[in-house]
Every structure is written in structure tokens, then in C-alpha cells.
Design brief:
The protein is of the alpha/beta class. The protein is 30% helix and 23% strand. The chain is globular and about 70 Å long. Bound molecules: adenosine-5'-triphosphate and nickel (II) ion (NI). It is an enzyme of class 7 (translocase). It is found in: Cell membrane. InterPro entries: AAA+_ATPase, ABC_Ni/Peptide_Import, ABC_transporter-like_ATP-bd, ABC_transporter-like_CS, Oligopep_ABC_C, P-loop_NTPase.
């Protein structure tokens, strides 16, 4: 086990109320495993990602839970100890590479600095910077370029090169390809895959479940701050259990069956005041159709149960209510 997250809850304390962005999220990532978080906008994917490196933006706060990296409890480390881990054991790439690149400094200097802050000496860092750029298919003469002199795809490759500097144990990639065209997207996915092959575990975020299915080992489905289903790609795609997962899969085109695309009706809830019981019940077709579950779905929160080995779901259809 590389990363073990238990019962993680994160709230944003805004002027208009407490946003319960992430509630009771539990999952783990093995060594060399690629886990992709999917779910609609606002479901809490980025908030979970930022919590793992303890960079939840204010007014957000981790209110409870445990985040263990190889048995080390990250939430108990000092800020200084955490700084040692960021960029070394855990690296992060974002949707917009300009959030991590400094527009005013040459990319070579930024690569070198990413290494010298962790104690690598300057000459060695310069050498490594060239190698890293080559690894991400950028000619080494671009070391003297500023970020704006590169294309969007090249900038993203530079931020991946920085993330790769120490062969991190975990790479967190939050929608790293969303802003790029399809061909460039693929080359970025290839790079992330090559990192995995060298031993890095991947925490990937996307709202495109078909992109998730292509490369990852496991899929985690989030809805309104809750993890509703977790399993291998095969388990999730072949045998989706949660009505929300089923709806997500039906909302994307299927190249093989040409089944009709069905949008998910309704909208995700306001997380300042989430629905009682299962947060998905107001949009759930099972809740709408099956009267007998109604006493539970809109009253009791479903707990995560292991339906089959490695396949977890939080839905009253499969038991797991607190009353049982
Ligand atoms: N800085 C903030 N202040 C207040 N609320 C926030 C803040 N950042 C996120 N939230 C709220 O937290 C919830 C989860 O947001 P988050 O960005 O984690 O979702 P996401 O799944 O990554 O969405 P997207 O797919 O749009 O990136 C949302 O309800 C969002 O409005
Ligand atoms: Ni996000």
C-alpha cells in the first residue's frame, strides 16, 4: 500500500455557509497503481487531490480523517516536513500549467530550482534538467525559453518534467489534459503512463469517465463530496453498481454499442445544505421508481460496503445502512 486515506472530510468556511465539499472519503492506492477520480463538476475531486499534499486552498479546512503515505501520517507532519515531501515524494500537475510555472522565469531555471530546494547541487541539477526535458520530448535548447514561448502542450510537459525530477512515489494529476487538444492530450497521457511504468503511483482527476477507463487500474466515483463507488476499471465499467455510476456511463458515447447518450437529469446539490440520506437520491432513478427503498434513501446515509473483492459501493440497494 502506498497511500491510505481514511474518512477524510473537508469543509470550506465561506461567508455564506459551510460547504461540505468532501465527507468521509476512504480509499487507497497501491504502489504503481493508477487511480482515477471521476464525477461531475463540484463533486470534490480537486479538493481531495489538494488535501493529499496538504494544500487545500483557504477557506478550506481538513476537518477529519487520516492520510497515510507508506504508513506516515501526513496530517500530523509539520509544515517543514510536508515541504520535504512536496515535489519529491508527491508531485502535482494541474489543468493549467501556468498555476505552477512562473511566467517571468526561464523554464530551465525553474527545473533547476525544483531540485536545488531539495538539496541537489546546482551543477547536477542543470545536468538533470536537460535530461528531464529530453524525457518529455522537449529539445534541451528550450531551457532558456520563458513559459509563454512554448505551446500549451509543451508547458504541460515542462510541468510534468518538474514533477518527475525525483521519481515521485505519487503523482497527482488534476485534469492535466483538459485544456489541450486531443492529440496533445494523448502525448501527455503517454508521459504519465511512462512515469507509472517507472514505479510512480498516479492519482488522476477527470470528469471524463471514458478517459478514466483507458489508462487507469482503478476508478473512484465521487458525487457531491462523497465517494460512491470504487473498484477496478473492469468492475466499474462492466458492472457499475451505483445508480450514479450507471448514469455517468450512460452519459458518454459508447463506440461499440452506439447506445443512445442520456444526460443525467437535474443538478448536483448545494453542498452548504446537502440532501438528507443519500446525497444522490433526488436524482436517482431507482429512488424515483422503487417505493420500498424510500424510507432509507432520503433518511439514512448509505455506508461504503465491499460488494465483491475490491469493489466498494455506498448505496442502499446493496445494504450498508447504519441501522443494519
Ligand atoms: N475556495 C473555495 N471556496 C469555497 N468553496 C469551494 C472552494 N473550492 C471549492 N469549493 C466548493 O467545494 C466543492 C468541491 O469543489 P472541487 O473543486 O473540489 O470539485 P471538482 O470535483 O474538482 O470540480 P471540477 O470538476 O469543476 O474541477 C464545490 O461545491 C465547490 O463549490
Ligand atoms: Ni476540479
Amino acid at each position: 500500500m502506498l497511500l491510505d486515506v481514511k474518512d477524510l472530510s473537508i469543509h470550506y468556511y465561506t461567508l455564506s455557509g459551510v460547504v461540505r465539499a468532501v465527507e468521509g472519503v476512504t480509499f487507497s492506492i497501491d504502489k504503481k497503481e493508477w487511480v482515477t477520480f471521476v464525477g461531475e463538476s463540484g463533486s470534490g475531486k480537486s479538493t481531495v487531490a489538494s488535501a493529499i499534499i496538504r494544500l487545500v486552498p483557504p477557506p478550506g479546512k481538513i476537518v477529519s480523517g487520516q492520510i497515510m503515505l507508506e504508513g506516515k501520517e501526513l496530517l500530523k507532519l509539520s509544515e517543514e516536513e510536508m515541504r520535504q515531501i512536496r515535489g519529491k515524494d508527491i508531485s502535482m500537475v494541474f489543468q493549467d500549467p501556468m498555476t505552477s510555472l512562473d511566467p517571468l522565469r526561464k523554464i530551465g531555471d525553474q527545473l533547476v530550482e525544483a531540485m536545488t530546494v531539495h538539496g541537489v547541487d546546482e551543477d547536477e541539477a542543470k545536468e538533470r534538467a536537460k535530461e528531464l526535458l529530453e524525457k518529455v520530448n522537449i529539445p534541451p535548447d528550450r531551457l532558456d525559453y520563458y513559459p509563454h514561448q512554448l505551446s500549451g502542450g509543451q508547458r504541460q510537459r515542462v510541468s510534468i518534467a518538474i514533477a518527475m525530477a525525483f521519481n515521485p512515489k505519487l503523482l497527482i494529476a488534476d485534469e492535466p489534459t483538459t485544456a489541450l487538444d486531443v492529440i496533445v492530450q494523448d502525448s501527455i497521457m503517454d508521459l504519465i503512463q511512462s512515469l507509472k511504468e517507472e514505479g510512480t503511483s498516479i492519482f488522476f482527476v477527470t470528469h471524463d469517465i471514458s478517459l478514466a477507463a483507458e489508462r487507469s487500474d482503478k476508478i473512484a466515483v465521487m458525487y457531491a463530496g462523497k465517494l460512491v463507488e470504487f473498484g477496478t476499471v473492469e468492475q466499474i465499467v462492466e458492472n457499475p453498481l451505483h445508480p450514479y455510476t450507471q448514469a455517468l456511463l450512460n452519459s458518454v458515447p459508447d463506440l461499440w454499442t452506439e447506445k443512445p447518450i442520456k444526460a443525467i437529469p437535474g443538478y448536483p446539490p448545494d453542498l452548504r445544505n446537502p440532501p438528507r440520506g443519500c446525497r444522490f437520491h433526488p436524482r436517482c432513478h431507482v429512488f424515483a421508481e422503487k417505493g420500498e427503498l424510500k424510507g432509507l434513501c432520503d433518511a439514512e446515509e448509505p455506508m461504503m460496503i465491499e460488494y465483491e473483492k475490491g469493489h466498494f459501493v455506498a448505496c442502499h440497494l446493496y445494504g450498508g445502512s447504519r441501522n443494519e
